[in-house]
Write a structure and sequence with these properties.
5 helices, about 170 residues, three-stranded antiparallel β-sheet, alpha+beta, flat, about 60% helix
Length: about 170
């Protein structure tokens, strides 16, 4: 059969259009894959960031995280307080007595379990705005962003009451 030039022009346009659709689909699929990979990379970075700021056995923030939170609280106080205030930023330290003896004689698993139980008691017994962090093997720190001498004493008494019950472990 004889083809007219106008028929060939339509055929070419249709092929170019079909090719453009296929290319757009391929580009869209590639872009979607790139977005998925970027999201996965962000998730990994977030997990690494969280792990670097978290004490693994207790799930509490670690020393570095407490230092950053303290710095942020001090910066916020400096930026917002034009007049001297009675409230101050305070950090309270608490230690588990004879923790090293327990860890050395009964093992790291039991020591981690004890630290976890202490962390749970501190976290559940103190207000949310107070950052509770594990600073070392047997040390914990509490950030009080709006503290007075009386509130510090009150928190110290509360910590003592939280630790009065024996810690039982099956570890």
């Amino acid at each position: 059969p004889t083809r007219r030039s106008s028929d060939l022009g339509i055929l070419v346009v249709v092929l170019v259009g079909a090719t453009a659709v296929a290319v757009r689909r391929a580009l869209a699929a590639t872009a979607a894959l790139a977005v998925q990979r970027e999201k996965a990379a962000q998730d990994v970075a977030a997990r690494i960031g969280h792990a670097s700021a978290t004490d693994a056995p207790t799930g509490l923030p670690n020393r570095e995280a407490l230092l950053r939170a303290t710095s942020t609280a001090l910066d916020a106080r400096t930026a917002h307080d034009l007049e001297p205030s009675r409230d101050q930023v305070a950090v309270i330290m608490a230690e588990i007595d004879r923790f090293d003896v327990i860890a050395d004689s009964l093992g790291a698993a039991l020591a981690d379990d004890i630290a976890l139980q202490v962390a749970r008691r501190l976290r559940s017994g103190l207000p949310v705005q107070q950052v509770v962090a594990r600073l070392g093997r047997h040390q914990f720190g509490l950030l009080l962003p709006h503290a007075t001498p009386d509130s510090c004493a009150s928190v110290a008494r509360r910590i003592t009451r939280l630790m009065e019950r024996p810690i039982l472990s099956s570890g």
